[in-house]
Specification:
With about 300 residues, the chain is mostly beta strands. It contains one helix and 28 strands. A four-stranded antiparallel β-sheet has the order 1-28-27-26, with helices on one face. A four-stranded antiparallel β-sheet has the order 2-3-4-5, with no helix packed on it. Strands 6-7-8-9 form a four-stranded antiparallel β-sheet, with no helix packed on it.
């Protein structure tokens, strides 16, 4: 990334704080993808070259950080605190690597001969989808102890992996349709979260709340489940399609087609209130939320952010 782009990001962040409004981010509408925001850090995949590289930007210091620009294709980053993880093809298959932002140190997490992909990190635990057994299973790695372990090796494929604290969630079709399952790292126990009719897919978890996309009503809606109270609840069941959802803290965001195009909506779990985040006539897709900030891909200029 060029320094001028970084300076534009800094100006955008300042304007968000001053205006408390929706603002375009000019990282690069053509070459940047898989944007994530966590605290003061923005992480993305830079596709300006032939293959993907991982970059980060610290909003508090106005500094860009090249996380990984090694040969091969680096994709699917995830960030928690000072740790960034991603999938990497430098060894001619898919492996998982990590980077410590506080020490500027890269390290391998799993370079097994099978394919390791779609890593996610929360605290000191990294999880990923692993094909070493011939199907897609869930494995994990403790950054403190350097111990790797299997989490789920059911014969069906485990997909849509996410983690928050002690909870790992995914969906699989062991029952004939796609259902949501979870695993408690503190007890070593797997448990079903939603096995209703229709397909339940792409879970997202934050704290003790899991949300997912659900087709039980004939279209895709957003449902949630509280792991502490064992209570399921609906978040949005509008007759239009809801998808590309994410939860962080008390806020759930998703992509919604109720207005004839793709817009971004949100829901506050504390108040039970649903609200529009962006309903511009163009398409808004793939929203992500961290704290008060929501970011999304927008066909107006590429990437937008809003302080909600």
């Amino acid at each position: 990334m060029k320094k001028s782009i970084v300076l534009i990001i800094a100006m955008v962040v300042l304007s968000i704080q001053q205006a408390n409004a929706e603002v375009p981010i000019r990282i690069d509408s053509e070459g940047s993808t898989q944007l994530l925001v966590s605290g003061d850090i923005i992480v993305w995949v830079d596709m300006l070259g032939v293959l993907g590289d991982i970059y980060a930007y610290n909003m508090s210091t106005d500094m860009e950080i090249p996380i990984c620009v090694m040969p091969g294709n680096q994709r699917n980053p995830s960030i928690s605190g000072d740790i960034v993880v991603w999938q990497d093809t430098r060894n001619d298959n898919l492996d998982v690597y990590g980077y410590n932002l506080s020490t500027s140190t890269e390290f391998p997490i799993c370079t097994n001969t099978g394919k390791q992909m779609h890593p996610r990190v929360s605290g000191n635990v990294v999880v990923w989808v692993d094909e070493r057994n011939g199907n897609k299973d869930v494995y994990g790695y403790d950054l403190n102890t350097s111990v790797q372990s299997g989490i789920c090796a059911d014969l069906s494929h485990q997909l849509g992996l996410q983690i928050s604290g002690n909870y790992v969630v995914w969906y699989d079709a062991r029952n004939g349709n796609n259902d949501i399952f979870g695993y408690d790292l503190s007890t070593g126990t797997e448990f079903p979260i939603c096995t209703k009719t229709g397909n339940q897919m792409y879970p997202s978890v934050s704290g003790d709340v899991v949300v997912w996309m659900d087709s039980r009503n004939g279209n895709t809606d957003i449902y949630g489940y509280n792991l502490t109270t064992n209570t399921e609840f609906s978040i949005c069941t509008d007759i239009a399609e809801q998808s590309s959802h994410m939860i962080n803290g008390d806020v759930v965001v998703w992509m919604d087609s109720r207005n004839g195009n793709k817009d971004v909506y949100g829901y506050n779990l504390n108040t039970g209130i649903q609200f529009a985040i962006c309903t511009d006539p163009g398409d808004q897709e793939s929203p992500s939320v961290s704290g008060n900030y929501v970011v999304w891909n927008d066909n107006r200029t590429g990437l937008y952010v809003k302080d909600i």
